[in-house]
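hey so u asked for the seq, here:
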Amino acid sequence: MSTIEWSVVSDFHKEARGYRPTNAFYEGWKASTEEEKDWLWQMLTDEVDMQIREQKRAEKQAVIDFEEDIQAIIEAGAGDRTTALRWMTQDSKFWHEQSVEHWVWELGILFTDYGRELVKELMDIVTFEEWDLT
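ran it, structure tokens below
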């Protein structure tokens, strides 16, 4: 692992823990043996793997929650999915596709297959406003 540039270790640390390593971590890394560096690298790898699993679990739950919201709105009188989505988005302003993507991102599902399909679906449902640059 010692042949890995510090910038790679720093990037991976940030991915694993959400922040760049401290000076103490850097000094510890420099002073570590190959075996210790391998152990530290594996620890960061395990943390990244855990975060990925947690993110996927949270995304699955967010899709379930969103589908339950749609169903509740349909049962409350919307009658169908398209109308429910129209009602859900009616208080939001959309100027272009990125606005739609942002709305879906706030649900926590943009980077899922479901989220990408939802963006396509919403593109035909939402009303786009003119972007006033004045």
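The chain has a mean pLDDT of 94. The chain is about 70% helix and 0% strand.
lmk if thats what u needed
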